[in-house]
Amino acid sequence: MFRLIIQQFSVAKIWAGYGGLSLLVGVALWSCSAPGQNEMPAERPPNILWITSEDNSPLVGAYGDTFATTPNIDRLATEGVRYTNAFAAAPVCAPSRNALITGMYPNSLGTEHMRSTYPVPDFVKFYPAYLQEAGYYCTNNVKKDYNTVDQPEVWDESSSDATYQNRAPGQPFFAVFNFTTSHESSIHSFIPNDSLKHDPTKVPIPPYHPRTPEMEHDWAQYYDRVQQMDAQVGEVLRELEESGLADSTIVFYYSDHGGVLGRSKRFIYESGLHIPMVIRFPEAYRHLAPGEPGSTTDRLVNFVDFAPTLLSLAGISIPDYMQGHPFLGKQAADPPKYTYNFRGRMDERFDMVRSVRDKQYRYVRNYMPHKIYAQYIEYLWRAPSMRSWEEAYLAGELNEVQSAFFEEKPAEELYDVEADPDNIHNLASEPAYQEVMTELREANQQWLLSIRDVGFLPEPMMLDIASDSSTTLYEFAHSDAYPLEEIMRVAEMASMRDPKYLQDLINQLGSEQPVVRYWAATGCRILAEQAGAAKEKLQTLLDDDEVSVQVAAAEALYHLGEKQSAVNTLREALSDDNMMARVQALNVLETMDADALPTLDAVKALLPADNEDREYDTRAARHLSNKLSDMAQQGS
Questions:
Q1: How many CB atoms lie within 10 A of CB 291?
Q2: In terms of domain of life, where is this protein from (predicted)?
Q3: What letter would DSSP give residue 233?
Q4: Helix, strand, or coil here: 7?
Q5: Is 32 a catalytic residue?
Q6: What sign has the CA pseudo-torsion 134, 135, 140, 145?
Q7: What DSSP character marks residue 295?
Q8: In Å, how far from its chain's centre is CA 612?
Q9: Which letter, b or e, does each residue of 493-521 get, where b requires 16 or more Cβ atoms within 10 Å of its Cβ?
Q10: Domain total for the chain?
Q11: If DSSP codes are grouped into helix, strand and coil, which group holds residue 356?
Q12: How far is C-alpha 256 from the chain's CA centre?
């Protein structure tokens, strides 16, 4: 893997980008100016400060949320430019942070799945490396979570004590401060109602949530956490001011994705993807701003755009491999018509979703519509609000909108985000919106082809490829071994849940490509009992060379009444050396209720002796083990 060693600052490069100042002039300015009041921002590249919060949607006064208490971010918005169409690449931290650090879509790199840490090609440098080469002092305080093999040398400091104050006199800095105060875990520890600053009985709740006491409480507590985070933002801004650096520093504030209650974080809706983002430009760099202080811009911005934008602001050439569009600086690109998002495996639960957003509509493409939205995720279910939502569903107390989260997905979704910001009215089948559907469907397909989306590989295959040091998933996706057009054609058919494609799917069960066989078998599962004609060919795939194909075929056969052979195949997969094959099998067994009881001993065998769930297979196994043990006890 690429390892960059900085032996000295490349002062000439950075100063050449700002007025052609010579190396001698640059060194003279650096050596005679101390940090603070004596810096001359108009004659040097900007300092850049990123303030990042975790897991919060725009629950901010500046975004019109009158229940929020965020005076510091609100004030920053009056001093800067507020972005109304800024989006995380994915609705969860690690894949989104991968997009930030690389300037590439994780589903092109093979880094889309939560905490998969698959390697990327050597040419992909984390963006601070380019800043260091140009003379910047780069600090990170403190979270990384980049979802691939780390490149720790790109930070001059990376710790809970990291600060730009330790740079050389006059040296430009890039500093990141990550606040975890508003992280999802902030609602896992209970604060009594009478200790909350925000009244649970008055908290606004989206229409897809039931107004249970637990839901009210978690929403109110989360608003409290956002208020605490806002205070931390204020502290960083005050320190910058007191250091005499505010006049030479461009300040970004943004969240790493939306959140945090159920159907926000991890889910590919506005609630999971839309983020608050404000950028403040000091007077010396006001010419770089897209508007006056206190203004807004509706330009579509995605996390893949951040790295190239940062390099553009610093006067550094943007590497060709970066897929984002710089939205500031001399290299700023024209505003894009669309922005793109993805959802892969979330912790221990598989899924594959892609999305396209323009300024009015969000198109969602569910490639695994047979998987319900609310697959059990251990970390998500730690929230009392999530447990109360499920209990209300099981008790039959929810309306149609609130119940939809616990049911299977349609293949396609379309939302008018201006009229329907909560994304609850699916327009995909409405005749009046078919032109929009066609446009955004084609935009999604073109995007996937242009980036060579590697996410169509089932993750057990991804793990095998990533474990081979001779190639990376990115390189595999650009090889002849990955016929993406053919794979996409079958995956699109498979996910439509339309019997007219059955014969084609049956034909593809015999493909030489294991990925195609996997999607053909998945299509038969999605058709369920309508796929009866595929039974004979599916049975031959129980002995396929690829375990992911075996599991997909077993799941399809289970829904065609072949329960015994399906259970036997899934049980065998639980002992496979490939951890993701075990997770895939556990995901299927989770949906089979009492029919999965014959696998209970094999499921329990996956549990560690120390009772710690360190891996996703043990998380999935623990929940399934508890569920099956309860069933066995009730049946005895």
A1: 13
A2: Bacteria
A3: H
A4: coil
A5: no
A6: positive
A7: E
A8: 26
A9: bbbbbeeebbeebbebbebebbbbbbbbb
A10: 3
A11: strand
A12: 9
Same domain, 500 and 393: no
Question: Of 532, 633, 551, which Cα lies nearest the Cα of 589?
Answer: 551
Within its chain, how far is the Cα of 63 from the centroid? 22
40's CB contacts (< 8 A; 6+ apart) are: 29, 33
The residues, ordered by sequence, that sit 6+ positions from 270 with a Cβ below 8 Å of its Cβ are 57, 258, 362, 415, 417, 421, 422, 423
Helices 579-590 and 459-466 pack at an angle, to 10 degrees, of 170
This model's pTM is above 0.70: yes
Q: 601 Cβ partners below 8 Å, 6+ apart? A: none
- pLDDT one-digit tens code per residue, 448-493: 999 999 999 999 999 999 998 899 999 999 999 999 999 999 999 9
Residues 289, 156, single domain; the answer is yes
Same domain, 109 and 175: yes
The type of residue at 290 is P
**565 lies in some domain:** yes
Residue 148: CA count within 13 A, CB half-sphere:
30
The pLDDT of residue 164 is 99
Q: Is 588 helix (H, G, I), strand (E, B) or coil?
A: helix
Q: Are residues 513 and 459 in the same domain?
A: yes
Q: Which residues contact 241 (CB under 8 A, 6 or more apart)?
A: none
408 & 539 share domain: no
The residue ranges of the chain whose pLDDT is under 50 are 1-42
Q: What is the DSSP string of 357-409?
A: E-SSEEEEEES-TTS-TT---TTGGGSHHHHHHHHHHHTT---HHHHGGGSPP
3-state SS, 74-89, equals: HHHHHHCEEECCEECC
Upper half-sphere CA count for residue 55 (Cβ side, 13 Å): 23
Range(s) of the domain holding residue 330: 11-190+233-335
Q: 419 and 549: one domain? A: no
Query: 327 with 400, same domain?
Result: no
In sequence order, the 6+-apart residues with CB closer than 8 A to the CB of 372 are 405, 406, 407, 408, 409
Phi first, then psi: what are they for 175, rounded to 5°?
A: -130, 140
DSSP class per residue in 107-148: HHHT--STT------TT---THHHHHHTT-EEEEES----SS
Name the catalytic one among 32, 93, 138, 524. 93
What are the residues facing 74 on neighbouring strands?
A: none
Q: Which CATH number characterizes residue 126's domain?
A: 3.40.720.10
Q: Is 617 a member of any domain?
A: yes
3-class DSSP state for residue 262? Answer: coil
- Give a yes or no: residue 343 inside a domain: no
Can you tell me which residue has the tokens 């490149």?
A: 151
Identify which of 406, 429, 426, 404 has the alpha carbon closest to the alpha carbon of residue 415. Answer: 426
CA distances from 598 to 568, 581, 593 (A): 9, 19, 11
- Report the CATH number that the domain containing residue 469 is assigned in CATH: 1.25.10.10
Say yes or no: 246 and 387 in one domain.
no
Who contacts 382 (Cβ-Cβ below 8 Å, separation ≥6)?
A: 185, 188
Domain edge (last residue) among 281, 304, 335:
335
Q: Is residue 315 part of a domain?
A: yes
